[in-house]
Amino acid sequence: MADGHFISVEVVLKDGRTVTGRANDGSAAWLCPCGYPSPLLGTWFPDPSVVHCPGCHRWYKFVKGRDRIEELIPAEVSPR
Question: Quick one: which of 50, 18, 48 has its CA closest to 33?
């Protein structure tokens, strides 16, 4: 990704739906489909982050090298 330029990233939900987020450099933001009013923010550089939505408790993770974010099922979330 070029510095200062935003690209669209796909957010893939477990039910197969997708929403679009925006990313640049090593971070991205997207709105959770539950309607939580603030964007969720995460990083994918240097390591992909796991992001929690406080509205519906979905978990998301960046898929490194694929420019997308996937919703995780709770069993896939490893404690930090």
Answer: 18
